[in-house]
Design brief:
Length: 490
Amino acid sequence: MTAWKRLAELAPGSSTLSLETRQMTWLLACLSRNATSEFGLQHGFSGIDSLASYQNSVPICNYDDVRDTIQRIASGTPDLLFAGAPVAFERTGGSSGGGKLIPYSAHSLLDFRRALLCWLHDAITGHALQEGCVYWALSPATRSAEVTPAGIPVGLPDGAYFGPDAGEMFCSLSAVPFALASETDVAVWQRETLYWLLRRADLALISVWSPSFFSSLLDALPQHAETLLARLSNDDADSARRLEHWLHNGKPQALWPRLRLVSCWADASSRPHFDDLRERLPHAFFQPKGLLSTEAVVTVPDAADRPLLAADCGFYEFLDDDGTVHPAWMLRPNERYEVVLTTAGGLYRYRTGDRVLCSGHVDELPELRFVGRGSQTSDLVGEKLTDDFVADCLAGIPGFRLLSPCARPASYVLVHDGRHAPNLQQIEELLHGNPQYAYARRIGQLQPLTEKIVPDALSRYQAHAIARGQRIGDIKLPALCLNTDWLAQE
């Protein structure tokens, strides 16, 4: 039996129960398991037996509401948000407000594992992946291993999410040695990653988060080509010939002729980067990755590549624009919502800031497409531009582009890489779709939209994000960027 088939068979079986039953079963089991934790005692978990009693007992929260408790957990105090101690922490990317520590319990790690194995099963069977290898996004460390004051690790190796059985298969299929993830020099990491990728003509699957992550690797290939060609000429003549062919025609399909599937973010501000990478690898099928955050998995693609709710991996509520909370089984098609999570890692009714569009249902499961960050809002003079609205306005612009506020004079600037000439007047008209923006422009509170061309915009943005503690593979480029410090860095 091949490693691909063994991986596919490790996925848990599908459920025939109703979505409401699956969700409530998960929720009540989680509350029962954590009833004796400090949070569970404070909020009467042992007496909760329905959705209504849960919502009445536990208020919706954000990270600031649990920050102090998480710091106590990081310092070694168990039984606070969940029973026992965490197995690890992860740090969020910090696209807004800086990075946040998120504790993982043994059960929340199992929920991640269930979702990922279900995705792998559907990807393998749906795209007939039977042979070859895979490139999983292995980011460089960029800094020494981090632990909390109590010695609990911050960050897990990617293979840990799959568990011991799948982890063995995960390692055996990887095109790139996992040891490269400990490399702290980004340039060295790029060169060595490319070396190992170039040696694998049988690369079948690329799984990354941000499409710009793999585009950056391709962009780095010319600067390393001479060194790589010399090494490959000694180590692998066939790979050297493929690299020489690429140097002459510039088509990456010459490097990986058997590539079948690329899985990466495709929605909201990631769309132009998804389209750009798809143009560079036209022989592969591109699958939009589901919504997976540091806190929890929300959706995973099914065998038909539709992002469906991961119904057995957490409890999900959805906040509409009127402030009404809906359970997962009551979502309406063509409506937008903010995701409110309950996780086995101690986040209860937690506002993620992620906004999704319910585009329909498949066997009761809502199909949810990420549309932007509701918590990312710019309000210079009362216009309240949001990330998802700006993403819609910029949807037709390829390449790197984002909108940033300018305080003096009050206005917005479109930052782009100069590869394409955006129509500022057209974007201005789309921004007028926000009535407050249109009013502010009409009375002169906001000046007209301007542009700033930054030829190396992507690499500069990535370098700034890495310096703030993000892993390069996790960097999600926003449509609306409130932090302009990266533009000042040389």
